[in-house]
Design brief:
The protein is of the alpha+beta class and 417 residues long. The chain is built from 13 helices and 21 strands.
């Protein structure tokens, strides 16, 4: 079972929330962030290297110092203000006419350590270390992680009632066209009930933010070790998450482009593909995968359908059923000799939010030799993998829309009521 608590968020006044809130630190490079950041943008705090000219190394001490300086400055200027009570928040995101409703909560670091917060990806230590430094120096979670949980009818009813009866605190459309709406749950009885209901929820599932979750767990353990009077109730035992019922979430495709065909001509490569796939030429119009075990390939100005043959997948195995596993085993490894998708420079990954036109563009430009579009993983597959203790291959899931950073921030200092 999971443990959550309300918190007193540090957040922008409603009239400037659109100026302060930003895209997450890891979806923009430093050049893009510098171009996108307005005067009040949280990007100056989560990507402080942009405040130097030329842009500084994000791992330099002066960059970390600038992050602390900016966080303090934003609070002094009143661009970020802490609420006067601990509470939960409803956060809704709208993309392409579809809205998903989550709760902003504080999740428990011990739940991550014990496995009640379940992961489906491996993390890299250097990325964990970098996120740990940011949490440690700011004594705060500046950006939320993104969790799913099994649907609960009572929580759904509470959220629906708040959305119907309360005026939103924030309601804005960001520059990318995605809508962000937030309601404050100020009623103490409602907050208490939310805490009680989550105590019956068996698990959270990390959808997006594996490195931030791992870093939060490590910071909590670090602070626990440093405190001889540790009780488990301190604020540092918690970190900020937005949690969504699994039925509302949709995973979109995460596609692959490769730089070369491992010395083969296009014709040789297609012939070898036919050992493992039924290959059909589809012409010059973009072809989307039509279901599980069907891929689309773009090569030499043409789109192809690749349907995996029996024996290349195992529908009874949570990992071998995945099309990313079929791609990794039969295309990347056997045909292209790409053994490690995490480190190889011969492969790149393209989030489905960019569309299949982006795959065509990168091949037509000559940058890449071929592109492959995959049918997206389902939430049920993700949960099965996490429940069985398995790990997905790299770059399997892509969630949109991303959580907006700067709508709420969680301080690790104990709140003075």
């Amino acid at each position: 079972m999971v443990k959550v608590k309300p918190f007193a968020a540090i957040r922008p006044p409603k009239e400037i929330v659109r100026e302060v809130a930003s895209r997450p630190y890891d979806v923009l490079n430093s050049v893009e962030a510098k171009a996108e950041a307005g005067e009040k943008s949280l990007l100056h705090i989560i990507k402080p290297e942009i405040d130097f000219d030329p842009i500084a190394d994000e791992h330099e001490q002066k960059t970390y110092d600038k992050a602390v300086e900016n966080f303090k400055k934003w609070q002094e200027k009143g661009w970020l203000v802490q609420d006067n009570k601990e509470q939960y928040y409803v956060y809704a995101q709208t993309m392409d006419g579809r809205t998903q409703y989550g709760l902003v909560v504080c999740a428990n670091t011990e739940d991550y350590m014990s496995g009640a917060i379940k992961k489906h990806e491996l993390t890299r230590k250097e990325k964990e270390d970098d996120r740990m430094i940011h949490v440690r120096i700011q004594n705060a979670n500046l950006e939320p992680v993104f969790f799913a949980y099994p649907d609960n009818a009572e929580i759904n009813a509470i959220v629906e009632n708040i959305v119907k009866t309360k005026t939103p605190e924030y309601d804005f459309t960001a520059e990318d066209g995605f809508g962000h709406t937030m309601w404050v749950i100020s009623d103490d009885a409602t907050n208490k009930r939310i805490t009680e209901i989550f105590a019956t929820i068996p698990a959270f599932y990390v959808a997006d933010g594996h490195h931030r979750t791992a870093a939060a767990g490590r910071v909590g353990a670090e602070k626990k070790a440093q405190n001889p009077n540790h009780t488990g109730k301190e604020e540092y035992n918690y970190f900020m998450a937005v949690v969504f019922p699994e039925s509302q979430l949709k995973i979109i495709d995460y596609n692959r482009v490769v730089k070369d065909l491992n010395g083969m001509s296009k014709e040789e490569f297609i012939t070898k593909l036919s050992n493992f796939f039924t290959v059909e030429k589809k012409g010059t119009e973009i072809y989307h995968p039509c279901g599980l075990h069907n891929f689309s390939m773009y090569i030499g100005g043409q789109w192809y359908s690749l349907t995996a043959k029996a024996g290349t997948y195992d529908d009874n195995d949570p990992i071998k059923v995945l099309d990313v596993s079929v791609f990794s085993d039969y295309i990347a490894d056997r045909l292209l000799d790409i053994k490690d998708l995490r480190t190889s420079k011969r492969i790149d990954f393209v989030g489905g939010i960019r569309g299949l036109g982006e795959l065509k563009k990168r091949v037509d430009s000559g940058e890449m030799a071929a592109a492959f579009a995959l049918y997206p993983v389902s939430m049920r597959q993700l949960i099965t993998i996490a429940d069985t203790g398995n790990i997905m291959p790299p770059k399997t899931t892509w969630f949109e829309p991303k959580l907006r950073s700067g709508i709420t921030i969680h301080s690790l200092s104990d709140f003075k009521k």
